[in-house]
Structures are given as C-alpha cells and as structure tokens.
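Lab manual, section 2.4: Encoding a predicted structure.

Procedure: take the sequence of the chain (76 residues), apply the prediction step described in section 2.3, and record the output as structure tokens. A sample record is shown.
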Amino acid sequence: MPETVNATSDDRTVNNVMRHAYRVLSIDEKAQMQDIKDRGLEFVEMLDRIGTSRELSLAKTKIEEAVMWGVKHVTA
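Recorded output:
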C-alpha cells in the first residue's frame, strides 16, 4: 500500500479505513476538491505569517474542519 495518495486520484481509497467505497469523481468534482483544499491551505499559511496565539490555533482548526466538510460535500 502506498504511503500517500493524491486526493484527486481514483486510487484514494487505498489508505482509508473508514470509508470502504468511493464513487469515481468527475473532473469538475476533482477540481472543486482541489480548490477547497488550496484555499484552506492559503488561509492557514496567511495566519501562520501573522503570528501565533491560542486564537490563531483555534482559527486553523476551524479552517481544517471547514475544508473537511467542503470536501465531504463534493465527495459524498
């Protein structure tokens, strides 16, 4: 089993113990998923540039959660 799998790959099921079946995503859905993740990363990186605090740690956790739910919507 590979250590990592690209999120937009049709092989993304090989390292997931919770979801046992995936549907094949369209090209548009793969692009949407990548866009959600890219925008989340961009926001986290911006917060990293402005400092560290409990508030920023909470903000980054919420960004991760928002990305998770956004991707879940696209892939459900």
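Check your result against the sample. Residues 27-75 form one domain.
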